[in-house]
Specification:
The chain has about 475 residues and is of the alpha/beta class. It has two domains: about 160 residues, no CATH class; about 280 residues, Glycosidases (TIM Barrel, Alpha-Beta Barrel), CATH 3.20.20. It is about 40% helix and about 20% strand. It is built from twelve helices and 19 strands. The strands form four sheets. It has an eight-stranded parallel beta barrel with strand order 9-10-11-13-14-15-17-19, surrounded by four helices. Helix 2 runs parallel beside helix 4, helix 3 packs antiparallel against helix 4 and helix 10 packs parallel to helix 11. The chain is globular and about 70 Å long.
Length: about 475
């Protein structure tokens, strides 16, 4: 039941990291739990559903590193699919569909993009009709490479042409950049001054008088190891809940005028963990939002979702899609003014896979159906070298993520240079917050600071400056 088989080309030494990215998504956009098997060059995917689906996995591109691409819709069957050919077919199909939609909307494309699309089409045709397996595999790889060149070119053209149109719309909220400091640090703030319109702080007591625009929170971080020490030390969930509500009431009752938004709850992803089960996450989120409303708070509130593509559902027993959580909370009538999408880019085990640019646009378009402004909460590793085992600090139960290893720094930077301008162009996206000011601020995500521990600026900070200079 639900069996998909794929032939892995002899020339592709499928690495464990690439195989671990594999997941199947149904027509409803929800990832299914899968059992992956491999025998020689045959890959099997078992699910408990017999519906058709899209296979997503990380594919190694020579220029861009490993990016998640997908097949088209595949029905189950006993005959193995050619893995690379189906990835090439699905990638080209997504590209051509998006290109057609944007061209109909008036997007102008240069000849290099159209030539790359035609090259990808020709190569896929050669792959389909090739009688030699090696030639077919080379043609499929060539089609994927050409499709990805065209995808990056198309994405950049979209940002260049559409972002100025968004800026000219007087009724569209002004876009802003933000940075999160877990606690106030004058030296760090001085380094970040002038780069960001908004500073996010976990506690309003940390707010410096010089800050004019601030985001408070998250009041509850429901992600693994996200709870404060006081909450972790509480005896049970009811005790944690009482402590949390007392803190929320205190924060809401002492809001400085500079606080323009409250980040009420973060880290919701539909799966539980040892500190907070999923039902407890949902109940605590409702309690936080209701307590803010009962306090007379008039500040806009945001809840955010970890891993918004929800690939984690394919690797966990049970779970709920983040879209379903958002829908459930909104139907309960609690006040939510913004939705945050947390993307811990290219981290493992709890981060988001690095996906090709058009999947970011699809993500925003899907979440924008709620009709609420979106805020992208982002981090990615730069300049990080994993420590050696000797002298490494004990982490206890702390979940420490590492870069997945399929991208180099310059490839992550190029991906963000392409993706972020596209997000600037989408009216639903109101802001981008980089979630870590300094490398050492959050040991769960090493290397993702805007500054290193000596306060030297890193590539992410330079990227925001380039975006501001180019688009604002």
């Amino acid at each position: 039941m639900g069996l998909l088989k794929f032939k892995i080309p002899d020339c592709w030494p499928l690495e464990r990291r690439q195989a671990s990215s594999l997941h199947v998504v149904g027509l409803d956009g929800i990832a299914w739990p899968c059992r992956i098997g491999r025998e020689d060059q045959l890959l099997t995917v078992n699910r408990n559903k017999d519906e058709s689906g899209h296979l997503f996995m990380a594919y190694p591109f020579p220029e861009d590193g490993e990016l998640v691409v997908s097949t088209g819709t595949l029905p189950e069957g006993t005959t193995p699919y050619d893995l690379t050919r189906e990835l090439a077919r699905g990638t080209l199909n997504r590209l051509r569909n998006q290109l057609s939609n944007w061209q109909e909307g008036g997007l102008q494309l240069d000849e290099a993009i159209l030539a790359a699309v035609q090259e990808a089409t020709n190569a896929l045709e050669q792959c389909i009709f090739a009688t030699d397996s090696l030639l077919a595999e080379k043609a499929a790889a060539a089609s994927l490479a050409a499709s990805m060149r065209a995808t990056f070119g198309l994405s950049q053209a979209f940002a260049e042409q559409i972002t100025p149109i968004r800026r000219a719309q007087v009724n569209v909220p002004k876009f802003w950049f933000g940075a999160r400091l877990r606690q106030w640090d004058q030296a760090v703030a001085a380094r970040l001054g002038g780069h960001f319109e908004i500073i996010q702080l976990d506690h309003c007591t940390d707010l410096d008088p010089s800050i004019q625009n601030a985001v408070l929170g998250p009041l509850l971080d429901a992600s693994p190891n996200g709870l404060s020490p006081a909450l972790l030390e509480a005896d049970d969930f009811d005790a944690r809940r009482n402590l949390l509500m007392a803190e929320v009431r205190e924060q809401a009752g002492n809001l400085p005028p500079a606080v323009k938004m409250i980040h009420a709850v973060a880290g919701l992803n539909g799966t539980g963990h040892r500190q907070l089960s999923y039902p407890q996450q949902l109940q605590a989120a409702i309690d936080v939002l209701q307590t803010l409303e009962d306090s007379g708070n008039r500040c806009p509130t945001m809840i955010s979702f970890d891993g918004p593509w929800c690939e984690k559902l394919a690797w966990s027993v049970g779970g709920v899609h983040a879209l379903q959580i958002a829908d459930s909370l909104l139907r309960r009538g609690v006040t939510v003014n913004m939705l945050g999408l947390e993307i811990h880019l290219d981290y493992s085990p709890t981060g988001s896979l690095a996906r090709e640019p058009l999947q970011w646009v699809e993500l925003v378009d899907t979440w924008s159906q709620f009709g609420l402004p979106l805020v992208i909460l982002l981090r990615a590793p730069f300049g990080y070298e994993p420590p050696t085992a000797v002298g490494r600090p004990a982490s206890g139960d702390l979940v420490i993520n590492q870069p997945r290893g399929g991208l180099q720094d310059h490839q992550r930077l190029r991906l963000l240079e392409t993706v972020l301008p596209m997000l600037l162009a989408r009216p639903a996206v109101q802001g981008i917050v980089w979630q870590q000011a300094r490398d050492g601020d959050d040991p769960r995500y090493p290397g993702s600071g805007l500054l290193d521990d000596q306060l030297v600026p890193k590539p992410a900070l330079h990227l925001f400056d380039q975006l501001r200079e180019k688009f604002f």
